[in-house]
């Protein structure tokens, strides 16, 4: 293995491609140092722009026609050349959302792998096609570099049948792949590894419940270092309530919406994926910061009540989900909070933890208040079970796993 050192530094370009955006970072895989990062957004519109963060400077540039992913990568390639960063890049690592049952590990992208990612678009129609756009654009922009796919579903491939099967006719699984896959796997894996180091034991001996709380939210039970259950399902709509997604509802509500209230199936899709969750309940915002501010400071009584209710339902549903994973584990070392909300909102964490006293979770107010903006650690009261706040870093995992696959 080529040890990373200052004489011979290597870096992986990490790409997370959406239908109208490309998030990128240049990461040293052995240390996690980020040399450059940025985001191209509003792609395929005339407002398309790219933001580059490099050497503590932020540059925003408009993109030129055809305003697409390739236009964004052309600006990135030029910037990498101008700053002598090209030679150190040894591979491109792509976040790919759905790897189905086929991909439990990172893989070097070949024509066959691309074809399979395309086939898996049936299970992730919003994400896999966008990920493929990124792969194709990078193959053109970085034709000499190996491209690696890291799948968001991979970490959850260790789930047992009893956790991944739905209570529906088994032929829907055997013939159509309808089962629970889970997402946010890269994040849950990263924070589990960090937790192992905080707990001072190997990951393979750690028993954890990890709560990734951001715009999307998921809870994962980790037994001896492996995912044994997770709250997101065949699609990222199942499980706890999220920013705009409902999470679990009675499936009968869908029939009621269609049969009695005149919704068509696209309306239901939009309602449950884009208009529900914190946004739907509060009728105010999907953003936790905005809701906390309204709860604590709003002079409008109705607004204040709705924000409070939305946050309380959010926390209760998460607490219930965490408690339910005591059925998946036989031991429990710690609860982990990560994601934008989990890493920063002391109010949400306290509200969740105070409903989990039966599992011996008790929060230390002082430590909880201090744990935000990158400051993590154990926020539990003395003698209570550990509650760890850990900043996630999916990009580092993608860089590290790409380097490992390529033996860099
Ligand atoms: P993510 O999807 O992981 O980027 O997380 C986005 C969510 O994190 C949004 O709901 C934000 O409001 C929330 N968030 C970020 N910073 C804070 C903060 N300081 N307090 C509360 N919520 C926050």
UniProtKB/TrEMBL annotation:
Pathway: Metabolic intermediate biosynthesis; acetyl-CoA biosynthesis; acetyl-CoA from acetate: step 1/2. Substrate binds at residue 95. The keyword Cytoplasm applies. Mg(2+) binds at residues 16, 394. Its EC number is 2.7.2.1. The keyword Kinase applies. Its cofactor is Mg(2+); Mn(2+). InterPro entries: Ac/propionate_kinase, Aliphatic_acid_kin_short-chain, Aliphatic_acid_kinase_CS. It is an enzyme of class 2 (transferase). The record marks 184, 245 as: Transition state stabilizer. Homodimer. PANTHER family: ACETATE KINASE. Catalyzes the formation of acetyl phosphate from acetate and ATP. Can also catalyze the reverse reaction. This is Acetate kinase. It comes from Colwellia asteriadis.
């Amino acid at each position: 293995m080529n040890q990373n050192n200052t004489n011979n530094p290597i870096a992986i370009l990490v790409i997370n491609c959406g239908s109208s955006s490309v998030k990128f970072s240049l990461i040293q895989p052995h240390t996690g140092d980020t040399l450059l990062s940025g985001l191209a957004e509003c792609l395929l519109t005339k407002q398309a722009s790219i933001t580059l963060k490099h050497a503590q400077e932020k540059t925003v540039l408009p993109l030129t026609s055809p305003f697409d992913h390739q236009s964004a990568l052309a600006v990135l390639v030029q910037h990498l050349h101008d700053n002598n960063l090209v030679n150190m890049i040894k591979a491109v690592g792509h976040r790919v959302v759905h790897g189905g049952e086929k991909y439990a590990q990172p893989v070097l992208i070949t024509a066959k792998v691309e074809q399979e990612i395309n086939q898996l678009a049936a299970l992730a129609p919003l994400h896999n096609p966008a990920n493929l756009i990124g792969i194709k654009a990078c193959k053109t922009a970085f034709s000499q570099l190996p491209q690696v796919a890291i799948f968001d579903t991979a970490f959850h491939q260790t789930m047992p049948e009893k956790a991944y099967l739905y209570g529906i006719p088994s032929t829907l699984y055997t013939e159509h792949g309808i089962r629970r896959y889970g997402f946010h796997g890269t994040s849950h894996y990263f924070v589990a590894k960090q937790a192992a180091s905080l707990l001072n034991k190997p990951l393979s001996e750690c028993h954890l419940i990890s709560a990734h709380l951001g715009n999307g939210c998921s809870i994962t039970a980790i037994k001896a270092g492996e995912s044994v259950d997770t709250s997101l399902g065949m699609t990222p709509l199942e499980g706890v309530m999220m920013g705009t997604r409902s999470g679990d509802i009675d499936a009968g509500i869908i029939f009621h919406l269609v049969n009695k209230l005149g919704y068509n199936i696209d309306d239901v899709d939009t309602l449950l994926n884009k208009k529900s969750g914190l946004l739907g309940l509060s009728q105010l915002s999907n953003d936790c910061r905005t809701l906390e501010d309204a709860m604590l400071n709003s002079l409008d009584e109705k607004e204040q009540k709705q924000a409070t209710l939305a946050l309380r339902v959010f926390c209760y549903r998460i607490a219930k989900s965490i408690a339910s994973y005591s059925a998946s584990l036989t031991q429990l070392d710690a609860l982990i909070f990560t994601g934008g909300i989990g890493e920063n909102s002391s109010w949400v964490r306290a509200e969740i933890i105070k409903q989990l006293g039966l599992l011996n979770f008790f929060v230390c107010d002082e430590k909880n208040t201090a744990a935000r903006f990158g400051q993590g650690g154990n926020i539990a009261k003395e003698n209570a079970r550990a509650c760890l706040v850990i900043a996630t870093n999916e990009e580092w995992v993608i860089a590290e796993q790409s380097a490992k696959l390529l033996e860099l």
